[in-house]
Amino acid sequence: MKTAKDLQVGFPALSRAGEVGAYATQKGFSYAVCDAEKQDALLPSAGTMWIAPRSRN
After folding, report:
1. How far is CA 8 from the centre of its chain?
2. Which of 29, 36, 38, 57 is close enough to 24 for a disulfide, judged by CB 3.0 to 4.6 Å?
3. Tens-level pLDDT at each residue, the chain (57 residues)
4. Is the pTM of this model over 0.85?
5. Domains held by the chain: number
6. Is 41 in contact with 56 (CB distance < 8 Å)?
7. How many CB atoms lie within 10 A of CB 2?
8. What is the number of helices (H) and of strands (E) in the chain?
9. What letter does residue 48 receive in the DSSP assignment?
10. Do 57 and 44 contact (CB within 8 A), yes or no?
11. Looking at the domain assignment, is residue 53 inside a domain?
12. Distance in angstroms (rounded) separating the CA atoms of residues 30 and 51
């Protein structure tokens, strides 16, 4: 069975004002941003989220 450490889940976000950002469950998540002026921006996520381990009852 895979654990949370085996999975990568990224959460990219876009606000109504056009602001972008992202968080991920593991380090190493990047996302691309394009607009009329720049089409090759590859950005790292701002950080990682901590997930509490599930109890094994």
Report:
1. 8
2. 29
3. 777 778 888 888 888 988 888 888 888 888 888 878 888 888 888 776 554 454 444
4. no
5. 1
6. no
7. 6
8. 0, 4
9. B
10. no
11. no
12. 19
